[in-house]
Amino acid sequence: MTTTVLNTPRGRVRSERLETRVTADQKNLIEHAAALQGRTLTDFVLTSVQEAARRTIEEHQRLDLSLRDSQAFVDALMNPQPVNDRLRDTVQRYRRAMGL
């Protein structure tokens, strides 16, 4: 893999290279999609790959957070905190307010 330095219109320097082999059908499809958006093939591919990478990372983080939340919830059910005076007062106020 070679490293190429290109100055882009936005002032970013591209110094890394990604290469891939695709079928003729895949290339035609990607070129058609890029043309429909009025973008270069490179711009279309880079943008698409970046968006897919961000989505993948976000989904993984949500899944990871969801797993931690689930574990914390189960832990709270299995090991409840002892009832304290503040909770007792809150329950009593709720029962009075609801007429229970």
Fold topology:
Blueprint: E1 6-7, E2 13-14, H1 24-36, H2 41-78, H3 85-98
Antiparallel strand pairs: 1-2
What's this entry about, in short?
With 100 residues, this protein is mainly alpha-helical. Helices cover 65% and strands 4% of the residues.
Model description:
- The chain has 100 residues and is mostly helical.
- The chain has one domain: Single helix bin (Single alpha-helices involved in coiled-coils or other helix-helix interfaces, Up-down Bundle).
- It is 65% helix and 4% strand.
- It contains 3 helices and 2 strands.
- Strands 1-2 form a two-stranded antiparallel sheet.
- A hairpin with a 5-residue loop joins strand 1 and strand 2.
- Helix 1 crosses helix 2.
- The chain is rod-shaped.
- The termini are far apart.
The total count of helices amounts to 3
What is the CATH topology? Single alpha-helices involved in coiled-coils or other helix-helix interfaces
- Roughly how many Å apart are the termini? 74 Å
> What is the string of SSEs from the N terminus onward?
EEHHH
Overall 3D form: rod-shaped
Global mean pLDDT: 88
Helix-and-strand structural type: mainly alpha
**CATH-defined architecture:** Up-down Bundle
Features:
mainly alpha; Single alpha-helices involved in coiled-coils or other helix-helix interfaces; two-stranded antiparallel ribbon; 4% strand; 3 helices; rod-shaped; 2 strands; 100 residues
